[in-house]
Amino acid sequence: MSDSVSYTKLYLRPHQFLARENESQPAIYRILEGWAHRFRLLPDGRRQVTRLFLPGDYCEMEWAQNGRSREPIVALTNLRALRIECDDLLYALSKDHELEMKIWSKIVSSSYQLSEWITNLGRKTALERLSYLFCEIFERLRTINLTYDDQFVMPLTQTDLADITGLTSVHVNRTLKQMREKGLIELQSKWLRIVDMPELRKVALFQPEGR
To answer: Cα–Cα 20 to 30 A to 128, which of 5, 43, 161, 195?
Structure first.
């Protein structure tokens, strides 16, 4: 974060809220450590995760304009973040062109991810959906040096994976077994190892952002 922006530090435990639905939000957050997710809860209790927040991500830039959260955001893991007052950020952006360009880059990247998630949910098979999700997470973590060779920490449960990909937990379990049998991944003890990245990308129809 630029020296021109003041902030305070925030620490959350798993399942604590960063924001609740339709709650006034005078500040945005930049994730420093840990994972969070945004979701939509239907009246019958079904949940659709609409975005994953990883280290380096901002949630949510739009609050600087409308000052209100549309959907709840909850920590998935222990979380460390910077709380940045919206008024302070807007003032800094008016004075710091480099910071402004960094923020725009984050907004463009978020828009690209959302488009890919819509396509994933609307047109892909279960195998393609999970393969794409793992490729995306790997690439996002790789850019911030949080992958270790071909593996990374995977805190998402099968229920989380189901709520991201629009599948049932049973279908996720079956698909993960299929991925192991195909020699694409290994998943154990909260670590995911991508065994065959070229093939996983091929199955996922994955195209890295900007290529």
So the answer is: 43
The partner residues of 193 in beta bridges, in order of sequence, read 151, 186
Residue 42, domain member (yes or no): yes
Is residue 54 within 8 Å of residue 35, measured between CB atoms? yes
Whether residues 12 and 101 share a domain: the answer is: yes
Domain with 40 in it:
8-113
Residue 178 covered by a domain: yes
- Cα distances from 49 to residues 11, 26, 62, in angstroms, run 22, 23, 18
Q: DSSP secondary-structure letter at 168?
A: -
| Per-residue model confidence as pLDDT tens digits over 72-107 | 999 999 999 999 998 888 888 888 888 888 888 888
Which residue reads 């950020």 in tokens?
Answer: 89
What 8-state DSSP symbol labels residue 72? -
